[in-house]
Amino acid sequence: MGWIGETVDSVRSIRLREAFSQTITLGLIVTSALIIWKGLICITGSESPVVVVLSESMEPGFKRGDILFLHMSKDPIHTGEIIVFNIDGRDIPIVHRVIKVHERQDTGEVYILTKGDNNDIDDINLYAPGQRWLLQHHIMGRAVGFLPYAGWITIIITEKPLLKYILIGALGLLVITSKD
Fold it and tell me: What class of enzyme is it (predicted)?
């Protein structure tokens, strides 16, 4: 009976090591993703180097679900550029085209007006109450590239939160049950 107890202890030990190994693997995956994200932030100079187009306001140029790659530079912003900006009091950034740039000669401050390509009017109604222009601190970055339709998974997960939990659970289950 002694060797049966040792075998059971051995099996428990192996399972414990496998669980520990899988936990470490999951931690490494999450840490790697975070390192890549932070690296992109450093390289691009943008607080959010990748964004998903959430509306049809930029069609036909960008469609809902396209992923945009952003870069932030010290170069002046010009009319015609596509920028991503945040509005005070709103959580979701907006992707629109610069239609007017005004620089005050006395302060050097730059004022920017935007509009979605598919919209009839400029974005003043989207800005915070009383705000008529965007300032530099509102700008998250300039669009420098895009990947068509690749952001649909983000849109679906955002619009269907239950699906997000199912997906996270399935991925966790996959990591736990996978054999190396």
Answer: hydrolase
Range of the domain at 130: 50-149
DSSP calls for 70-135 = EE--SSPP-TT-EEEE--TT-SS-EEEEEEEEEE-TTT--EEEEEE-TT-SS-STTTSPTT--SB-
Q: How many CA atoms lie within 13 A of 173 on its CB side?
A: 6
SS3 call for 69: strand
pLDDT of residue 48: 87
Q: Has residue 129 been placed in a domain?
A: yes
Active site residues: 57, 96, 123
What three-state secondary structure class fits 60?
coil
Q: Specify if 171 maps to a domain.
A: no
Question: Which letter does DSSP use for residue 35 in this model?
Answer: H
- The residue among 108, 45, 57 whose CA lies nearest residue 82 is 57
For position 60, which CATH number holds?
Answer: 2.10.109.10
Task: Report residue 142 as tokens.
Answer: 């300039």
The total number of structural domains in the chain stands at: 1
Summarize the confidence of residues 22-32 as an average pLDDT. Answer: 87
What pLDDT digit, counting tens, does each position of 91-104 carry? Answer: 889 999 999 999 88
Residue 123 to residue 151: CA distance in whole angstroms: 24
